[in-house]
Structures are given as structure tokens and as C-alpha cells.
Amino acid sequence: xxxxxxQKHAKLIQxxxxxxxxKEARHLIGKAMVTVTRVMVSPDLSVAKTYLSFLLxxxxxxxxxxxxxxxxxxxxxxxRIGKSVRIIPELAFFPDESASYAQHMDKVISGLNIPAAPExxxxxxx
Length: 126
Known about the structure:
Elements: H1 4-22, H2 26-29, E1 33-41, E2 47-55, H3 59-68, H4 70-81, E3 90-95, H5 98-110
Parallel strand pairs: 2-3
Antiparallel strand pairs: 1-2
InterPro entries: KH_dom-like_a/b, RbfA, RbfA_dom_sf
Pfam families: RBFA
Keywords: Cytoplasm, Ribosome biogenesis
């Protein structure tokens, strides 16, 4: 379980990375829309696991491109939060699979053959 301090740092990093991908890092990702869905910070605040979701682009290629420019993204992050945190965390980017998992589960559930429940007869009480 994350401490309040970890949660606070995670929210700050999530917000700032979202803005970085919208503004400063536009040249890296092109027309792709990148959403920072979740950030998990280590207890010592030195590593931030960042989960990304992609629209209008190939997720694998975009993630690889972001990983290749990880130092540049961390530099942008340091310019934004450098005054409010002691350590700028190392960034580890991962694809967020929750949307594809939700689609898969929806497909599985809709494909189930569930028989209708038998109607219950109302019994009158005396």
C-alpha cells in the first residue's frame, strides 16, 4: 500500500507528465494522443512506474519512441517539478492494458449463453 507521500508524488508526476506529452514532447510522439493513466512511485520516491494509454498511433512503436527519449522527458519533468521535490524520479514506462482487457471481457460476457431465469410464482400470505 502506498503512503500519502507516495500518492501525492504520483498525482503530481501524473499531472505534469500528461501536460508534457501534450505540449513539450509533441515532436516525439507526433499526432499520437498519450494519456498517463497511472503512476506508482517507489517508497524512496526514486522510481516512478508510469502506465500510458495511446490513441491514433501504434502503441508498441510509440512506447518504444518514448523509452528512447526517456532522458528528455525526465528533463522536462525536472524543469516543472524541480522546485517542489528533492529527487526527480527515474521514469519507467509501461503500456496500460486496461482498455483492451475491458474490450476482451465485454466480448467474452456478450458471447455467453445464459438461459433466462425461471419466473417465480407469487405466493400470497394468509
